[in-house]
Amino acid sequence: MSNLGRYQEIVTESARAGGVDKLIKSIESGAVAKATPGLVGKGVGLGVLLAGTAGVAVIASKRAWGSLRARRVAGDAASADLAGLVSDSESESDELERDAE
């Protein structure tokens, strides 16, 4: 054993693995293998969450557009009624002026 401590351990492990590059690839593949199941689970969970959120957003927007259309139709009907009342009122005013003459 030498007095190099952790450095000596790394040198020894890299010699066993067949070189520093092979040791690094071994460490990387082990890290990926450990992280992948967690990432897949998180990805599925996030996908479900986003799909649910998108569904709620679609439903809410459809309701909002329906409400907007209903208001627009009601406003158009009210405008038509008002225009009719104004037209009738003008007709009556014209008739009263003719009768007064």
UniProtKB/TrEMBL annotation:
The chain crosses the membrane at residues 43-61. Residues 80-101 are annotated as: Disordered. The keyword Transmembrane applies. It comes from the Bacteria. Keywords: Membrane, Transmembrane, Transmembrane helix. Residues 89-101 have a biased composition (Acidic residues). This is DUF3618 domain-containing protein. The lineage of its organism: Bacteria, Bacillati, Actinomycetota, Actinomycetes, Micrococcales.
